[in-house]
Write a structure and sequence with these properties.
This protein is of the alpha/beta class and 184 residues long. It is built from 7 helices and 7 strands; from the N terminus they run E-E-H-H-E-H-H-H-E-H-E-E-E-H. The chain has one domain.
């Protein structure tokens, strides 16, 4: 289902490292549960934290300008145009950029063997798209997992990364928080 969402990560120094827009299944029982499962998988989460130092946002007008120009020259503007991207360009887009990723970007970062991981900063996409219904924020600086209803609204729920709930409790917590929000 087309429930738009944003998966974000703040590193231990307080720097935004991930802002992945997702087009599909953004409900707490979908992408929210996927993020929760990822956080509870200690081995994957530890690999993710180790690889986070290799992550940076693509600088479209800066040092990555040539990379962006080559990609744009090969990528079709419309689905009816030919796709001339190289296998490496397709792999990069499918692994780190497509709107179909949502929380899967976390696993892709954890499993990455790339020496540098270039991501698109999709936070502005979320802010400019009023239909983004949920934002899932992993804040390593505060050691929290936060869930927002829409990107600029108040937090629905904050969990310590050291005491995450089971999925059914998580989904019920968010539902209850949304109900309380509707009562106001």
């Amino acid at each position: 289902m087309g429930t738009r969402n944003l998966t974000m990560v703040i590193d231990q120094e307080g720097t935004k490292k991930v802002a992945q827009y997702g087009q599909w299944d953004g409900y707490p029982s979908g992408v929210g549960a996927d993020v929760l499962k990822f956080l509870k998988d200690k081995q994957s989460f530890d690999k993710f934290k180790a690889n986070l130092k290799k992550v940076r946002f693509l600088e479209q007008e800066g040092r990555d300008k040539e990379f962006v120009e080559r990609y744009d020259a090969n990528a079709p503007s419309w689905t009816s145009q030919p796709d001339s991207r190289t296998d490496e360009q397709k792999r990069w887009f499918d692994t780190y950029c497509t709107r179909d990723l949502s929380a899967k970007v976390l696993t892709n970062i954890a499993d990455s063997e790339d020496s540098e991981i270039l991501l698109l900063d999709r936070e502005e996409t979320g802010k400019n798209n009023s239909s983004v219904e949920y934002c899932y924020l992993i804040d390593l600086n505060k050691n929290t997992f936060e869930v927002y209803n829409h990107i600029d609204e108040d937090v629905l729920k904050v969990y310590s990364l050291d005491s995450l709930p089971d999925e059914d409790v998580f989904v019920a917590d968010i539902s209850k928080a949304e109900g309380a929000e509707d009562d106001e």
